[in-house]
UniProtKB/TrEMBL annotation:
Binds 1 heme b (iron(II)-protoporphyrin IX) group per subunit. It comes from the Bacteria. Belongs to the HemJ family. The chain crosses the membrane at residues 6-25, 56-76, 88-105, 126-146, 152-172. Keywords: Cell membrane, Heme, Iron, Membrane, Metal-binding, Oxidoreductase, Transmembrane, Transmembrane helix. It holds the Pfam family UPF0093. This is Protoporphyrinogen IX oxidase. It is a multi-pass membrane protein. The keyword 4Fe-4S does not apply. It comes from Aphanothece hegewaldii CCALA 016. Pathway: Porphyrin-containing compound metabolism; protoporphyrin-IX biosynthesis; protoporphyrin-IX from protoporphyrinogen-IX: step 1/1.
Length: 193
């Protein structure tokens, strides 16, 4: 029975952890883009995003990570022979990358708070795709184990990465064009001195 409890809370931890990681980097996008705003909006927005980032990281994301890892250890303790499985070693390697990403986000958060981060909103949008790719790989390994269809999986992951990168670029291009149109309209409607 312990196995099912560990598994249930492991899955809950994964959902919470990933929700936090996805939203955290989205906040980084807004934080970086707040730099483009005039004062006092810039300071107000950056202060608000800093508070939101810290709360999200400390109250949701990190506890989700801790529950995920603790329950994974519990799962392994109920079936220690699983440690001999090759697929699990690969999965754990990707989990280590995800843990590194988690802690990298903490470093970025600190740099943003000190106004030392030079990343753009566009770069943060690209960074936000990393946990998606890791999630797909980790779930595929957990579901298929040693029967992972590597040829299909490789192409699906590659297609996902290309699609995400393309959509990021298209969205950025659209935003730039919208901003240019808005500037043109404001210049046209501004009273002449």
């Amino acid at each position: 029975m312990a196995y099912y409890w560990f598994k249930a809370f492991h899955l809950i931890g994964v959902v919470v952890w990933f929700a936090g990681l996805f939203y955290l980097v989205r906040l980084f996008v807004y934080h970086a883009e707040a730099e483009e705003q005039p004062e006092p909006a810039r300071s107000i927005l950056k202060n608000q995003y800093e508070i939101m980032e810290k709360r999200l990281y400390n109250i949701i994301t990190t506890p989700g990570m801790l529950v995920t890892v603790a329950m994974a250890i519990g799962l392994i303790s109920t079936e220690p022979e699983i440690l001999k499985s090759g697929w699990l070693h690969i999965k754990l390697g990707f989990v280590v990358l995800l843990l590194g990403y988690h802690h990298f986000c903490a470093r970025i958060m600190k740099k943003l708070a000190k106004n030392e981060c030079k990343w753009t909103g566009q770069q943060f949008r690209a960074l936000n795709e990393a946990p998606t790719v890791l999630l797909v790989i980790i779930v595929m390994l957990a579901v298929f184990k040693n029967q992972l269809p590597l040829d299909l999986t490789t192409w699906v992951i590659f297609a996902l990465v290309v699609a995400m990168a393309a959509s990021i670029q298209l969205y950025a291009k659209k935003r730039r064009k919208d901003k240019e149109k808005l500037l043109e309209l404001s210049e046209e409607t501004a009273p002449q001195a």
